[in-house]
Structure formats: C-alpha cells, structure tokens
Amino acid sequence: MISTKNCQHSRRTLVDQVEFISAPGRSEPGVYRPGGPIALITNLCLFDYDKHSGRFSLRSVHPGHTLEEVRDQTVFDFDCPAQVPTTPVPDAHRLALLRGPVAEQIADTYPAFAKQVFGERPTPLTAT
C-alpha cells in the first residue's frame, strides 16, 4: 500500500487517534483483507508496521535528523530499538530504479503523487 496523502512528519499528521478511517491497517478477526501497510516513510524516518500488533517500529532515522526529533513530532507510541540506525543514502543503481521503472509503475496508479515526487512523466519511446 502506498500512501500518497502526506509524508510530512509532524504532531498534526502522526496522531494517536483519528475520527475516520478510509483504509484500515488491519481488520477484525475473521475478516479477510489482503495487502495493507508494511511501512511508513516520512521526511524524518522510516517505520515498519506490524499487522498483527497494529504497531509501528522505528527502523531508521534519515540523515540530518535525530531520534529526539522523531519522538517530539510523533504523537502515537511506537517501538524503538536500543540503537537506531541512520537511513542509508540510496546508491546510483537504486536511484535509477526509483526514477525509472518504479516511477513508471507508480505513475500508472498514482499520477499526481508520481508527478509531485518524480516530476513530469517521461513520454514512452515508441518503435518507428
């Protein structure tokens, strides 16, 4: 699942409770719902999501940010390892994948999000 609504990490967006849920992260026992969230990526960090517990666990903090900043800007409770790694900077190969095939696949389903993140969608080459 890709959330295209907001990746700004703030006390206003990462709250403990919401009034309306349009796509639940998990379902009641006995309800089959494929897919669901696996991670939450913000401008500060990367969280993993445990579907069984319904909790987020901090995986890494992005370069230039701190655990204290993440805690201060997050209203909900989350699990945290004793040593929090820094999110690795993507290498050239990973960036090429993100900007190429991944961007194309995302643009098919989420064109506005893809345009916001990757810019204008390139025109596919056609055989002449």
Structure description:
This protein is α+β, with helices and mostly antiparallel strands and 128 residues long. The protein folds into 2 domains: 1-87, no CATH class; 90-128, no CATH class. Helix content is 25%, strand content 12%. It contains 3 helices and 3 strands; from the N terminus they run βββααα. It has helices at residues 67-72, 92-109, 111-118, and strands spanning 39-41, 45-50, 55-61. A 3-stranded antiparallel sheet has the order 1-2-3, with no helix packed on it.
Low-confidence stretches: none
Number of helices: 3
* Average of the residue pLDDT scores: 82
- Given the C-alpha coordinates, what overall shape results? globular
Strand order of the largest sheet: 1-2-3
Number of strands: 3
Report the C-alpha radius of gyration, rounded: 17 Å
Instruction: Please trace the helix and strand order, writing H or E for each element.
Output: EEEHHH
The helix/strand class is alpha+beta
* Helical residue percent band: 25-40%
Q: What kind of sheet is the major sheet?
A: 3 strands, antiparallel
Estimate the strand proportion. 5-15%
Distance between the termini: 37 Å
Q: How many structural domains?
A: 2
